[in-house]
Structure formats: structure tokens, C-alpha cells
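TICKET: design request
STATUS: open
ATTACHED STRUCTURE:
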């Protein structure tokens, strides 16, 4: 098994590509070791000292490190843990864990607008963000403001504010006049 790595726009985050499917559908975000309780793979990765976040996409694992640790020290251990996991035959997620579709549900009068927002995110934004080892999902829409949840390499990325304001906000405002602003939400 050969695992490739790619840098991301976030210097604290590295993307690992095991050459096989990680999640069939959706994404899974583990911003802490406690959140990884239902994922054998995420638990293994958090077992490496200095890991502060784990994120799964379709064919990648994104790992975020603490600021006081260098990738030169972490990368070999993480590669070993990921390889060991896939060779063990254990599942990526436990039986009780379900990978969410990502977007929050929305009930209310703005249903058509929210559907348009989700469609644009799914077709124009999420594929590009996945290339950088992250995901951006719909969280809410209120009085013209779209709230988005940033995961994986996007969470804490120095360029995420520019991506939100110059990229996503401009895209949504162009296609959906009711959108006036885009803001991140932290979990």
C-alpha cells in the first residue's frame, strides 16, 4: 500500500491519500479525540501525539497538527497508522456511526433559497474545497446571511476568510440575490 500526501492551504493540515475509498458517501469531521469515539481509524490517528483534528472525505484523510509540532516528526507515524488500519480490515467508522450528508436541515419560508444555496455548494464549492482536504457545509440562512460550517483543512485555515468572502459569498450573491453575506460558524 502506498499512501500519498498533499499539502493544503492550511499549513497545520496535511492531506493523506491511501489510494482507496475512505468514505462511500459524505464526510466525517473529528475536531477532537472525544468526537472520534465511533471511528477506529480516527482513534488510531489521534493516538499519534500532536494530532488535533481528523477529517475523512471520499478518498482522503486530512490531519491537523498542533502548532508546536513539526510535520517531519508526525508524518511517518500518521502514514504508519493509516496503513496499519487499512491492512487490518477494520471499518473506518463503527457500526453505530453514520457519515452525515453534511448540510443542516432547514424548515421555513426560505426553503427554495436554501435549496439553491445547497445546490451551488454541492456543485461549485464542495468539489473544489475537497481538493484542498476540507469541506464546507450549509448550517443556516437567516435574513440574507448564509452560515457555513468549515471542516478539515478549511477549519482554521489562514485563507478561509478570503475564500468565504471573495469566493463563496460572491458566487452565492451572483446567483441568489437574496443572499447578502456569508459567515462561518464554529462548532
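STATUS: resolved
RESOLUTION: sequence designed for all positions
ATTACHED SEQUENCE:
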Amino acid at each position: 500500500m502506498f499512501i500519498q500526501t498533499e499539502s493544503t492551504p492550511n499549513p497545520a493540515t496535511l492531506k493523506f491519500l491511501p489510494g482507496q475509498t475512505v468514505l462511500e458517501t459524505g464526510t466525517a469531521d473529528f475536531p477532537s479525540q472525544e468526537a472520534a469515539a465511533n471511528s477506529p481509524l480516527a482513534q488510531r490517528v489521534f493516538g499519534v501525539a500532536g494530532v488535533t483534528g481528523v477529517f475523512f472525505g471520499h478518498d482522503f484523510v486530512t490531519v491537523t497538527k498542533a502548532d508546536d509540532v513539526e510535520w517531519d516528526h508526525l508524518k511517518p507515524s500518521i502514514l504508519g497508522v493509516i496503513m496499519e488500519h487499512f491492512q487490518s480490515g477494520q471499518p473506518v467508522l463503527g457500526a453505530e456511526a453514520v457519515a452525515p450528508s453534511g448540510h443542516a436541515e432547514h424548515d421555513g419560508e426560505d426553503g427554495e433559497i436554501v435549496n439553491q444555496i445547497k445546490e451551488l455548494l454541492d456543485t461549485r464549492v464542495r468539489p473544489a474545497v475537497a481538493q484542498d482536504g476540507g469541506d464546507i457545509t450549509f448550517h443556516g440562512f437567516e435574513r440574507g446571511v448564509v452560515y457555513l460550517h468549515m471542516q478539515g483543512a478549511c477549519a482554521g485555515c489562514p485563507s478561509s476568510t478570503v475564500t468565504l468572502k471573495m469566493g463563496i459569498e460572491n458566487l452565492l450573491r451572483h446567483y441568489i440575490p437574496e443572499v447578502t453575506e456569508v459567515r462561518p460558524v464554529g462548532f
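CLOSING REMARK: The mean pLDDT is 87. The helical segments are 40-46, 71-88, 111-131, 160-175.
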